[in-house]
TrEMBL record:
The keyword Manganese does not apply. InterPro entries: DAO_C, DAO_C_sf, FAD-dep_OxRdtase, FAD/NAD-bd_sf, G3P_DH_FAD-dep. GO terms for biological process: glycerol-3-phosphate catabolic process. Keywords: FAD, Flavoprotein, Oxidoreductase. PANTHER family: GLYCEROL-3-PHOSPHATE DEHYDROGENASE (PTHR11985), GLYCEROL-3-PHOSPHATE DEHYDROGENASE, MITOCHONDRIAL (PTHR11985:SF15). The keyword Oxidoreductase applies. This is Glycerol-3-phosphate dehydrogenase. Belongs to the FAD-dependent glycerol-3-phosphate dehydrogenase family. It comes from the Bacteria. Residues 19-345 form the FAD dependent oxidoreductase domain. Its cofactor is FAD.
Length: 520
């Protein structure tokens, strides 16, 4: 086994022969490469940009069962996702944390309180008895307003709460890439696939272009998994299936004031315009507002439009009128595109999220659909498909039983967190940010502490009101394969979504990045 960190971009190793090439360094590609390596395959994982730079860093940052899917009777999907929520909290308890959702119910709501309670009872049942989150509870209107005074009081009949989990999607993806490297996968970001190669026996490899050196070379492989999300069909070519590309938009808003009891609560609301479910979620000292759904034809053109901004702000003002959020209050915005099976449903919300695996040609495997939450267990099925295509011996998956790099013991998480926070404070990190930093890096806080011993000034916060410090920039560049401002400030830390950095701050960060880039 290799080390998980530092991540090593070993392009020379790509010239060897592989059992499996995985194209796409998002969450599906990372889990697939990791699982395949643990089952004995020689694997290469390539990504044309940075790890998680596509859909996998543009999610709602949730690990959840998908309460809204119950309305479409997708019970197996929900049960599947809730089982994965348990697995992920076990193997990455620092990255997957419990989150309480409040569901206010107003007079005339499309889903009434009794119906919602029935749905939450079913959600609890599908969760099983060994889950890391609280069961649903009921609240009167007065108790709900006491907890969250910014809610619309007119017609409020009460509400319910239920538990799910939150994550940092970009850092989760990075942790799985690191796990894949530790399992023996050759990993390389900024490595674009020009074309798939074929010989008389079918698929034989790929033509690659190094996006940094512009060097071109051939990678030989017996099978390929094209896990490039909305870009997959362009790689597969004329044999690609018909799919729907669905864009989801999120806005990043200021934090919502609440009572002490309500601090940290998220909300599930229904938009008055069309009855769609949307979330309001506390995240890194700000609030995520989303998401929308609209079909697009080109994933590279997926931007946040004025129409989508108005839709989300109007919906939020309807539920939280006293906040009166305006466009000028928006802190950040982002859009992601997911690939769904092509169906003739009138509503995109009704299109199934069920996962499927296609083989447009022998030994070319193309996953379609799925959710961030279920990516690990979907990857199990992908690799099993690969093993059959290669006529390899059946080997069980092991990813469900192995902690991700940096993960403390789930059983002793609270004790670990207390100790890690104390160590970070002793190293010079401000008290109000230590828990967030500890959860972001897990047991790798030891590396941060070593960097702070090297230079105590790296305990400096990048932005005064957000718990991100210079040592994290250095760690990202030295050990996490980050080379640009976007790598560091969008994915290793989501600062560009949480604040606006002035030119002086960007120049200072860019200088720190350049000073710590690996010397070749």
């Amino acid at each position: 086994m290799a080390d998980a960190y530092p991540l090593i971009r070993n392009t020379a190793a790509l010239r060897g022969g592989f059992d499996l090439l995985v194209i796409g360094g998002g969450i599906y590609g990372a889990w697939t490469a990791y699982d395949a390596a643990l089952r004995g395959l020689r694997v290469a994982l390539v990504e044309k940009n940075d790890w998680g730079s596509g859909t996998s860093s543009a999610s709602s940052k949730l690990i959840h069962g998908g309460l809204r899917y119950l309305e479409h009777f997708e019970f197996s999907l929900v049960r599947h996702a809730l089982a994965e929520r348990r697995v992920l909290t076990d193997i990455a308890p620092h990255l997957v944390r419990p989150l309480r959702f409040m569901v206010p119910i107003w007079k005339g709501a499309r889903v009434g309180k009794l119906q919602m309670r029935a749905g939450l009872v079913l959600y609890d049942v599908l969760s099983g008895f060994d889950q890391p989150v609280e069961r649903h509870k009921s609240f009167s209107a007065s108790k709900l307003l006491e907890r969250h005074p910014y809610l619309r009081s007119d017609g409020l009949k009460g509400g319910l709460s239920y538990g799910d989990c939150q994550e940092d999607d970009a850092r989760m993806t990075l942790a799985v890439v690191a796990a894949a490297q530790a399992a023996g996968v050759v990993v390389a970001n900024r490595m674009a696939v020009q074309t798939l190669r074929h010989d008389e026996n079918g698929f034989s490899g790929a033509n690659l272009v190094d996006q940094i050196s512009h060097e071109r070379f051939v990678l030989a492989a017996q099978a390929v998994v094209v896990a490039a999300g909305p870009w997959s069909n362009a790689i597969v070519g004329r044999k690609a299936p018909r799919v729907k590309l669905v864009k989801g938009v999120h806005l990043v808003m200021p934090p919502i004031p609440s009572s002490i009891k309500g601090s940290g609560d998220a909300f599930l609301f229904t938009a008055p315009q069309d009855g769609r479910v949307y979330f309001v979620i506390p995240w890194y000292g700000r609030t995520l507002l989303g998401t929308t759904e609209s079909e697009v034809s080109d994933p590279s053109q997926a931007v946040v439009t004025d129409v989508e901004v108005r839709y989300l702000l109007d919906a939020a003002r309807h539920a939280l009128p006293r906040l009166d959020w305006q466009e000028s209050d928006i802190v950040g915005r982002f859009a992601g595109v997911r690939t769904l099976q092509a169906e003739d449903e009138d509503s995109l919300s009704a299109v199934t999220r069920e996962f499927t695996i296609l083989q447009p040609e022998p030994r070319v495997i193309l996953p379609i659909g799925g959710k961030y939450t279920t990516a690990r267990c979907d990857a199990v099925d992908i690799v099993s498909t690969v093993m059959r295509a290669l006529k390899r011996e059946r080997v069980p998956s092991k990813t469900h039983e192995r902690s991700l790099p940096g993960a403390p013991s789930a059983e002793h998480y609270e004790a670990w967190l207390q100790q890690a926070c104390a160590q970070l404070m002793q190293a010079g990190i401000a008290r109000d940010g230590v828990e967030q930093i500890a959860n972001r890096h897990g047991t790798r806080v030891e590396r941060l502490i070593a960097l702070l011993e090297e230079n105590p000034q790296w305990a400096r916060r990048i932005v005064d009101d957000l718990a991100f410090v210079d040592a994290e920039i250095v760690l990202a560049v030295r050990e996490e394969m980050a080379i640009s401002l976007d790598d560091v400030l969008r994915r290793r830390m989501p600062l560009t979504l949480l604040t606006t950095l002035d030119d002086a701050a960007l120049q200072r960060i860019d200088s720190l990045i350049r000073q710590n880039l690996p010397q070749h």
